[in-house]
Design a protein that fits this description.
The chain has seven helices and no strands. Keywords: Membrane, Transmembrane, Transmembrane helix.
C-alpha cells in the first residue's frame, strides 16, 4: 500500500473499490465516487472520536474523569428527583448510560436493567385491564408515600395532617 492508496470502510484499498472492479458512481452520474461522499453515521463518528481520545494515555484519563463526573452529576440530579413526580428514574438511567461509555460495570448494569425493564413491560402488557389498573394504583400510592416521607423527613411537615386540617 502506498501513501496515495485510499482505504474504504470495508478495508479494501487500491484501484479495485468493489469486488467486481466496478467503481460505484453517484446517482447523479457526475463520475464522483459515491463511497467518498457517504458520511458516517453519528454513532460511528462518536466511536471514532472516542477511539482517538483513548489512543493517548492522557486523553484516556481525562475522558474517564470527565465521563465519571458527568455521569455522577446526572445520576445525582436524577436521584434527587426520584421522590418527586417526573422522570427521576429516567434521568438516573441516562446517567448510567453516560457512565457506560467508559465503565464496563455500568454497561453491564445498564444491560441488566434494560433486559428486566423490557421483561416487566411485556408482562404488564399481557395482563388484563384490572391488573394494569391495580399496578397503576399501587404505583401512585408508592410514589405518594415516598413524597410524604421525603417531605416529612426533610422539612418536618406531615402532609396528611396538613391536608386534614385544611379540608
Amino acid at each position: 500500500m502506498t501513501g496515495t492508496d485510499v482505504v474504504d470502510a470495508t478495508g479494501r484499498s487500491g484501484g479495485d473499490p468493489t469486488p467486481s472492479g466496478d467503481s460505484p458512481r453517484s446517482p447523479s452520474g457526475d463520475g464522483v465516487d459515491a463511497g467518498l461522499l457517504h458520511k458516517p453515521s453519528w454513532r460511528a463518528r462518536i466511536s471514532t472520536t472516542l477511539e482517538v481520545i483513548r489512543a493517548n494515555p492522557t486523553g484516556r484519563l481525562v475522558l474517564k474523569v470527565a465521563v465519571g463526573l458527568a455521569g455522577l452529576l446526572v445520576v445525582a440530579v436524577g436521584a434527587l428527583l426520584i421522590p418527586l413526580p417526573g422522570p427521576g428514574w429516567l434521568i438516573v438511567l441516562g446517567g448510567l448510560g453516560i457512565w457506560a461509555i467508559e465503565f464496563s460495570w455500568a454497561r453491564r448494569l445498564l444491560t441488566f436493567t434494560r433486559r428486566y425493564l423490557r421483561m416487566w413491560t411485556h408482562w404488564v402488557t399481557r395482563q388484563s385491564w384490572t391488573v394494569r389498573i391495580a399496578i397503576g394504583l399501587f404505583g401512585m400510592l408508592f410514589v405518594g408515600a415516598v413524597v410524604w416521607i421525603s417531605v416529612w423527613l426533610s422539612f418536618g411537615v406531615n402532609l396528611v395532617d396538613e391536608a386534614l386540617t385544611r379540608f
